[in-house]
Automatic annotation (TrEMBL):
Pfam families to which the protein is assigned, alphabetical: DLH (PF01738)
Protein name (Swiss-Prot/TrEMBL): Carboxymethylenebutenolidase
Residue ranges occupied by any Dienelactone hydrolase domain in the UniProt entry: 34-250
InterPro entries the record matches: AB_hydrolase_fold, Dienelactn_hydro, Dienelactone_hydrolase-like
Highest taxon listed in the record's lineage: Bacteria
UniProt source species: Dictyobacter formicarum
Length: 254
């Protein structure tokens, strides 16, 4: 698992604005009801993100991350993956997530993403540029959802796993050349679960397909380095925040 109940996202390297958030329940086209957390900036910068959590689903780290985005002026909704198999139950450390990860299907996940996207659009009253921001499993899903016609402005993935083959439809590496949107990928150089050669292959495939991309590897940083407690990697976290905010700004202004 990526983040435990004590993990907290680093603070953005800008003066925080005011924001508020709330737990909500969204309904997908197939009737699935799933938990989400919606965060609203008091002053919008004209962009929004859908946060894809790690393997544990929607837990406190991602609710707070949604608030941190909103404090920068970016509307955010963080979603849970497991409404179909675990209902609306808690995703704290006691949640046995792995059986539910094994039941995850891309088609149903994409349906949930569409529900989150519709929620953002309806609450804003317009189709603002939207970016999925994923972590671990969520990073993989950010890349895979980039093969779909969601109309995203760009994709952001922290430590996206390259070897997970959901539904037998191919790994993120297998499908990298199908991605339709610019990519920002952030990786730890000491992440034992994501070999550096896989990261290099991802970059080569994006380059070969002519897909705009920025792939960053932080030397010595482990999986889940983006954590306020990881003081040894505070500079990497600040740099990652800066790159995320620049990427969103650059692809919002187009």
């Amino acid at each position: 698992m990526c983040y435990d109940d004590n993990a907290r996202p680093p603070l953005p390297p800008i003066e925080g604005g005011s924001a508020h958030g709330e737990d909500i329940v969204l309904t997908a086209a197939d009737g699935n009801r799933f938990a989400a957390y919606s965060a609203y900036p008091d002053k919008s910068l004209g962009a929004q993100v859908i946060i894809y959590p790690d393997v544990r689903g929607l837990h406190q780290f991602y609710k707070e991350l949604a608030l941190r985005f909103a404090e920068t002026g970016i509307r955010a909704v963080a979603i849970d993956y497991f409404g179909r198999t675990a209902g609306l139950t808690s995703r704290d450390d006691s949640f046995d997530f792995w059986p539910h990860v094994q039941q995850l299907h891309l088609a149903s996940f994409f349906s949930d993403v569409k529900a989150a996207q519709d929620h953002l659009h309806s609450s804003q009253g317009s189709n603002l540029p939207t970016f999925p921001v994923g972590f671990c499993l969520g990073g993989t899903l950010a890349l895979l959802s980039g093969t779909q016609d969601f109309g995203f402005a760009g994709l952001i993935g922290f430590y996206a796993g390259m070897s997970r083959n959901i539904d037998g439809e191919g790994t993120a590496l297998d499908r990298a050349e199908e991605i339709k949107y610019p990519v920002l990928g952030l990786f730890g150089g000491a992440d034992q679960g994501i070999p550096t050669d896989q990261v290099q292959t991802l970059e080569q495939k994006l380059e070969g397909a002519g897909i705009e991309h920025e792939i960053v590897t932080y030397p010595g940083a482990p999986h889940s380095f983006f954590d306020r407690r990881a003081t040894d990697f505070a500079e990497a976290s600040i740099d990652a925040w800066n790159r995320v905010l620049r990427f969103i700004s650059a692809h919002t202004s187009r």
